[in-house]
Fold:
Amino acid sequence: MDQLGEIRKTLLLNSLSEDEIRRYLNDGSFKISVYGKNSIVHFAGEYCSKLEIIITGRIVIDHIDESGNLMTIAEFLGDEILGGNLLFSKNPHYPMTVTAKQPAVILEITKKRVFELFSENSDLLYKYLQYVSDHAAILGDRIKHYVNKTIRESIMSYLDYEQKNQGSNHIKLTITKKALAERIGVQRTSLSRELSKMRDEGIIRFDAGSIELL
Structure:
């Protein structure tokens, strides 16, 4: 992998020169880490000491409730940031487990280097603040939609969102039903059972790849 080229493609760091990036890689303030599929990137409670930019891969934040249900709180793909809202916090600990759902390559930047870059580059600081603000709002909205809701309410929240996004009552599923179950924090069998009830009540019609709101 062309490390310099991949780093310069990221939105946050595209204003840096190759010489700057090479220097930071050499002095250890930039570091490339590789994670295999299903590897733990951070454990719940782990101290956040660096900013991380995903070069490639798919990273998720999962929460397991008291009943053992897995809920995917957030998903991060290439060119997105981990630890952005924690690094300068008074309590910089990851509240939930962070996992690589697909093989991932991540650029780690030390807190000291991040602060120096912000001090020297107002454009970079602006991009960072914009990203953190936007994603804090998205995460808050995600939690609000799914926490303390019944399975049916969570399914309807997802379908309402996709209906508006796709502009149709016939909603093409962009994720598997297993992933949808994780997203709303229930077992796959519980989701299937509730979908069947909603079909029997004439609320929806569905097949393997789509759900239609009736």
Summary: The chain has two domains: 3-146, 151-213. Residues 3-146 form a domain with the Jelly Rolls fold (CATH 2.60.120.10). Strands lie at 30-35, 39-42, 50-64, 70-76, 81-82, 97-110, 170-172, 204-206, 210-213.
